[in-house]
Every structure is written in C-alpha cells, then in structure tokens.
Amino acid sequence: MNISKTQAIKAARKFVSNCKRISSTNYIVYGPFDVHNPSGPTTEHQADSYTKALADRTQWVARIALAMMGRLNDQAEYAIWCYIDKCYGGSTGTVADIVDAGLQA
Length: 105
Known about the structure:
Layout: H1 5-13, E1 20-23, E2 26-32, E3 42-47, H2 50-68, H3 74-87, H4 95-103
Antiparallel strand pairs: 1-2, 2-3
Helix pairs in contact: 1-2, 2-4, 3-4
C-alpha cells in the first residue's frame, strides 16, 4: 500500500483499545486477532501492570501500522523483536520507534 508512516500509525491506533484496568493488578487491551485484517475478529492481551499493558498496546499498534504499509514480514517481526529485547530495561519505546525498526529490516 502507499500510505505514510504517520497515516498508518494514526489509522492503526483506532483498532486497538486503550489499556483498561479490570482489577487491582490486571489490565487488558483489545485489538484485532490478525494485524493484516484489523477490521476482523478481536482478541485481548492481559498484563499484570499498566506498564506491561501499554507496552503490549504499543507493539500491537506498530505491527498493524506496518501491515497497513505492506511492510510487516518475517524480517520486520524479527527486527521488532530485537528492538524490544534490546530496550526491555525500561520502555519498549514509542510506536514510531518500533515502526522504524520494522522498516529498517
């Protein structure tokens, strides 16, 4: 597809919910089961902290954005995994950072 990174990120954010607190130690994020079909069936990611739920949401949005751009493949997935593994001391970075990692693959 011919879509810019900014447009793809903006569109992808519409398909993933914000982090919702469902108990004192449990957060949930809803989004598409298949990032290549974001309008299709949804699923959920659960996390035991807000920070982890936000990291899941960030990665999910980035993958959807890359799929919308037609750039999500095995090499991009591996680049995202390496980027997140390298950054896991604190934050996973921003959606744009993760998309950039995938685009560099």
